[in-house]
């Protein structure tokens, strides 16, 4: 599919009854299932995916839900400035400034097809602008808003796979 390499899917990653939880420093924590997300406006963009491992997948077409639209539905507190995006494997998480995360897309489709689990489905965080490849969190199941910069594991894990 579209030149993205496939990686082994961790045992912890299951698509049965998948939900996305948005919690933390919000006024209305919420859980979204696939039907909830399908009912929201979609965002699409096409771009190259440049990986630290030295490969590039050209012209990937992503479609999903703009993270800012999800955040609007949970009413972030005025002190919310950061978010930690968790993968359902239990190990991987990446932190973002909230103002940067708002334009990201929670991709549900790749090249017009449902996003396969091997490529991060059912939901993968992708940035429409320049971003490091390790910020593209696969198997997203939680977005946790915080008032302080959270610790993340993404960069260390991703770069450890390259070396």
From TrEMBL:
InterPro entries: OxRdtase_Mopterin-bd_dom, OxRdtase_Mopterin-bd_sf. Residues 8-151 form the Oxidoreductase molybdopterin-binding domain. SUPFAM superfamilies: Oxidoreductase molybdopterin-binding domain. It comes from the Archaea. PANTHER family: OXIDOREDUCTASE MOLYBDOPTERIN-BINDING DOMAIN-CONTAINING PROTEIN, PROTEIN-METHIONINE-SULFOXIDE REDUCTASE. This is Oxidoreductase molybdopterin binding domain-containing protein. It comes from Halolamina pelagica.
